[in-house]
Each structure stands twice: as structure tokens, then as C-alpha cells.
Design a protein that fits this description.
The chain has 13 helices and eleven strands. It has 328 residues and is α/β, with parallel strands linked by helices. A six-stranded mixed β-sheet has the order 7-6-8-9-10-11, with helices on both faces. A five-stranded parallel β-sheet has the order 2-1-3-4-5, sandwiched between helices. Helix 1 (6-13) crosses helix 3 (34-47). This is LacI family transcriptional regulator.
Amino acid sequence: MPRVTSADVARESGFSRTTVSYVLNATPGVVITETTRQRVLETAERLGYTPSAAARTLRSGRSDLVLLVLPDWTVGPVIDALIDHLTAALAEHGLSVLVHVNRSGRPLAALWRAVTPCVVLGLGPFAEADARAMKQAGIPVAGTALDEDPHPEIFAVPQASIGALQVAHLVERGHRVLAYAAPSDDRLAAFADRRLAGVRAQCAELGLPAPLVERVSLDVESASAAVAAWRSGDDPVTAVAAYNDEVALAVLAGVRAHGLAIPADVAVIGVDDIPAARVAAPALTTVWQAIDAQADYLAATVLAALDGSSEPPARTADVFHVVARAST
């Protein structure tokens, strides 16, 4: 069904398109009788008229769209939760979120010029040329970064510190020979490499052997092969720091496939505290991340940019912490 336009409202109400436009756009400085205004609005409602986003953008110079740019990552429970919370927070202020996953190689400029967003958010760093072009066009840019130095426009997520925290927890439980279960999907390398770097650095600082690293797919066969490799040496691995909870759940299955006890033979810790972690057998120890706080920060950054505020929003102090459960 074709979209109802202001021309349809004009034709049905019997008024000129100019008069209808004045009413529908609440144009200031124009005298319209109350009878005319009510008749136009009633006709628009009856026909199901909704204003064109493109026309509204032309009139105001700014749309109500927040363009959220995701790098070519897998979209799992954590990203889903962040987008959901961010969308809800911005909807309270009349803003909509348009999510773009940067997989096609289409130039970012072609997208933001087409939709004219009020703000562009990035869950990864923008190319310098893209960021400069958007700012020159008067479009505020904000987002997150992985382990980069804090910046007023950036919410830094300390991935290396997450890996270090996993090691610290396992060492507190008495473990000295550790492994790292890396994801098999190369699209997660930006996160996995930083978390692994944190694991390695913490092991070195504590005088532990370097962690044994295996890539683990989300299936029992892959996890079982990794567990076999970790347990085959003279000093078998007794604890595994997994890239995230999904990989950790696969490791739990791999440990059970060898008839080993958790955590008596092998302890496992994940990252993200997804719902499945709480009902795993045994319940999975994990590193909780402040996803809602990150989404709130991004929403506040958007609103500050639209208000012309130069003050960055407050950041939460509790970015992540261990949730200890039976698997360690």
C-alpha cells in the first residue's frame, strides 16, 4: 500500500497543500483558524498520515536517527543486550537507533550522508578520515574503544584487564598451570587477542608458566581435543580462562567428555555472565561486564552532543568483576 502523503490529506480535506503543510508542520507565524486546523488533523488521522522522515530532516536539518556502526563482529548476547538497552534509553528521548554492521565494505560516508543521522556511534574505532568528515559535516561522533586511553568521547573497555582478572581469580583458587581457550572465529580477534595478552601478562607477573592456548569451536569435539592437549604434558593444566561464556560452556563439555571433575580436575572461568552461565552444570564462574552502564554512557553521550554540552557523562567505576560460581 502506498504511503499517505500530505497531498492526499489536502485532497481529502479540501484545503490547499500549503494550508495542510502549515498545519501538519505546526509552522510558526502563520494564522490558521481552529476549525481548519482540526479538520486537517482529523483527516490526517483518518487516512493514517505519518510525516516523512526525509522531509522532517530537510526542515530541521537533523533527523532523529542515531547511527550505530558495528565492526564485522559476531553479534551475540552481549552486543544484543547493549543494543537493546541503548535503543530503550534513546527511545525515551524520541530517538531511534539504526544499526549498521560494517561487512559489505560500503563506504561509511555513503551511509551517513544518505540517512543524515543526528549522531554516529561506533562500537569500534572509526578511520581518521571518516571521523573527520562526519565532524566537518556537523555530525557528533562517539563510541567505544578497546583498551585505548580514555577520551571524553570514548568509553574505553579494558579487555586486557579482563584477562588479567581471570588469571588472578584462578591463582587465588590455587592453580598454577593455566590454559586459554580462544574463539575459533577470526572476527573476534580484536577482543580475544587483548584478553589473551592480559592473561599472558598476568601469568608472567606472577611467575607462572605461559598459558597453553587452544582455539575452541562451540562443539564438544573441538573442546575435547583442546582438553586432551592441555592435559597431556608432565604438568597438566588445572584451570582454563575462556574467551567468553559460550567458549567456556564448550570447555565444560570437553572436560566432562574426558571423565574429569569440575573444578577438582579442571576449573573454568568465562566472560560476560550470560544467562546460560547460571544454569550450566556446574554453574559457570565468569567476569561480569557493565553492559548496561556502557549503554547508558553512550546514550548520555548522544544526548549531551544534541544539547551542545561539552561535559562528558559520568562513567561507572565498576566496569567488570568476577562472579564466582561452582566451576572454579
